[in-house]
Amino acid sequence: MSQKILIVGAGFAGVWGALGAARVLDAASISPSDVEITLISPKPELQIRPRLYESEPQRMAAPLLPLLEAVGVKYLEGIVSEISVHDKNVIVVGANGQQRTLAYDRLLLTSGSKLNRPPVPGLVEYAFSVDCIEDAIVLERHLEQLTKLPDSRARNTVVVVGCGFTGIEVGTELPQRMRKMFGPDAAIRVVVVGSQPEIGPDLGPNPRPFVSQAFDSLGVEAVLGSGVVSIDADGVLTASGGRIEAKTVIWAGGMRASSLVAQVSSRLDPLGRVEAALDLRVAEAPGVFVAGDVARALCDDNGRYALMSCQHAIVMGQFGGHNVAADLIGVPTLEYKQPFYATCLDLGEWGAIYSEGWDRQIKLTSAEGKARKQIINTQWIYPPAPNRTEALAAGNPQASYG
């Protein structure tokens, strides 16, 4: 009877985790009939989530079946609803609602994160998001429908709630999209609202002057230091009592790790991530490893932790996949390391900012930054071609960070 490796989730960590695990078995000349790797997700595709602020979000998915087949990884369509650490099995709910139980010898949990939706009145009923392709499509259809409404200040106004990375990228993308909808002379208004006193609170001081310059150039307003306390069909109310009339409200209020992590550990950080050992295993759950947005993992020797980003998820997935397979066949695991860190923030028609280092030293801005962002968005974060040699090489955790 073959041994089983299950990978839960087909985000960046899950896809590169599958490649990393397959690479270990290939190097050890272990056939899929002896150790079976199965990737479980609702759809056999990788949603290119960092691009969902762009138009045509339906294009932002990379098919996975040819790639998985090339490296001998099985695919199972479904959603994991329960993980039993004691029994070493998971319950998978299929598209038809039927449940099945799958046993595992090793489990790599890469179920990702979801948009944090606190109990703000009206958020569920009236706010849009770019959390997943389906949400982004709903937003795009709504924006298209606005052209059928009479011209008004509320119709031409979009409020973006959240002044972090996603809020900034959404906010700076919208002026150009709205001018295409309403005409170049339309009196459009984009307002980014945040409870923090500064734009991009996690970006640090170096990028902020460029973000402010982009906002000024594009006509994007920032209302800071007062969060949104309620949303309705005609706008938002802020904590300071201000009212912004808008037919479109986009929520970008931060992320929370998948709730599945609470089934493998009680040691969770404020973002809901599980505390991971240096090789990404979960101490409380024998045979379970984590990677991506569900893992609170040290990424260097200076005490820095990986962020909820595709940049960290890809490399963490490589390590997680390597380790889940290595641990099963008795090969030493590797400590996750990712000392290099870069940030590329899209700022719409103004361009983009590319920085390196945790102190975000600015390297490229404006058009040069935009060119780098486009390479990242259209090439670097996509899975490799479904060629076995190329795909297995992409699973090597030490290729770039060894």
UniProtKB/TrEMBL annotation:
<keyword id="KW-0274">FAD</keyword>
<keyword id="KW-0285">Flavoprotein</keyword>
<dbReference type="InterPro" id="IPR036188">
    <property type="entry name" value="FAD/NAD-bd_sf"/>
</dbReference>
<dbReference type="InterPro" id="IPR051169">
    <property type="entry name" value="NADH-Q_oxidoreductase"/>
</dbReference>
<feature type="domain" description="FAD/NAD(P)-binding">
    <location>
        <begin position="4"/>
        <end position="317"/>
    </location>
</feature>
<dbReference type="InterPro" id="IPR023753">
    <property type="entry name" value="FAD/NAD-binding_dom"/>
</dbReference>
<dbReference type="GO" id="GO:0019646">
    <property type="term" value="P:aerobic electron transport chain"/>
</dbReference>
<protein>
    <submittedName>
        <fullName>Pyridine nucleotide-disulfide oxidoreductase</fullName>
    </submittedName>
</protein>
<comment type="similarity">
    <text>Belongs to the NADH dehydrogenase family.</text>
</comment>
<dbReference type="GO" id="GO:0003955">
    <property type="term" value="F:NAD(P)H dehydrogenase (quinone) activity"/>
</dbReference>
<keyword id="KW-0560">Oxidoreductase</keyword>
<dbReference type="Pfam" id="PF07992">
    <property type="entry name" value="Pyr_redox_2"/>
</dbReference>
